[in-house]
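To: structure desk
From: M.T.
Subject: fold request, one chain
Message: Could you run this one when you get a chance? Sequence is below, nothing fancy, just the single chain.
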Amino acid sequence: MQEYSWKAPDKFVCPDCVGDDFLKEKIVQNLTAKTCGYCGKSGEEDIAAPVSAIMESIAQGLSCRFVDWHDADFPDECDWDEEFAKLPTTEEALRKIPLEGRGDLLRDVAVAFRCNRWKEKTGGFHDYDMSMRGSWDYLVWTVKHHERFFFSSTTTMFRFAFQKTPAELLGEIGQIVSELELVKPLLAETELFRVRVLSKKEDWCLADIEKNLGAPPNDKVLSSQRMNPAGISYFYLAKERATAMAEALSKPPCQAALGCFKIRRDIRVLDLMNLPKIPSPFDGERHHEGETIAFLTEFADEISKPVQKDGSEHIEYVPSQVVCEYFAKVFRTEDGKPIDGLAYPSAIRPGGTNIVLFPPQRGTDFSDMAGLVKAEEIEFPNWFDFQAVIRAV
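Reply: Done. Structure tokens follow.
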């Protein structure tokens, strides 16, 4: 991470004059003045710190996202005046991070930096540096277009120095998943739901529903999903009845089978529903942690999207399938055990939770993890009935 030269304003600032919690805490830790030089607040005890107490952290946040224009790369053939005019000023760059607070404080901080124009770094996850984004882009290119099945032995021929190999990136993500304790238990007897759409032409009865509501056998998985390739069955469920219906049913009139499954034993899933808040961009020590949380947040958003069956899924879904297979087959918790699935948000029904169970470590039968306890036929002739159920808590 680059460091940029600055000279701190000779003033004092109180916690109320900045919006970022990390910077507020920095100020609290360095109180030496009884009056704030920005809002004018004063007290009998020290309530403000020198602006210099937060300048180093602000400089770190700036260097994560921007580069001094003197050190930036520009196209060989470009209109220099036009390119320079597009560059944000220091104050504009600080606001984009974002540095929130009083305008006069932002202006003082901006003037403190030697550089007055900045070029934004490309490819950052939520404004973090290029390392993980660049490594992810390299993994995507590798498994889509270069090496799909033996990428763990990928050479560095097409890789920049800041990019990790796909195997290194996956291992790093797994390590931080463990450090952040994102693997959570899903207890035995927990109810999960699954819906299968049926056309009016099908001749079906409850017995058929019970037989067909489970995960399909591998030889029946003929198309790719976001998390599993064709030929490998994953078991997709939801924590709520309404979520299961929202995910499977598009519009009325429709009829379907709804199955209630119960978890047979305690299992463990990677919980992408309740990811930690991304740390402050000014907290340099947690920069890499924040980069990974940002990656997992975007990954959860990606796998939550409805599946597109236009032929592109055979290529476009490969990267997310690789990540899921890593967690299904390679990743181990700190006690050396595998995990059984993922919990991730529903994009169709906000607040809803989807569950995908990975193939068992031995065999292909999901009945060891979840069993059908009841099934029912459901039908929605109109939008009123359909929306009433989907919106149910």
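Reply (cont.): Residues 287-304 form the longest helix (18 residues). Let me know if you need anything else for the meeting.
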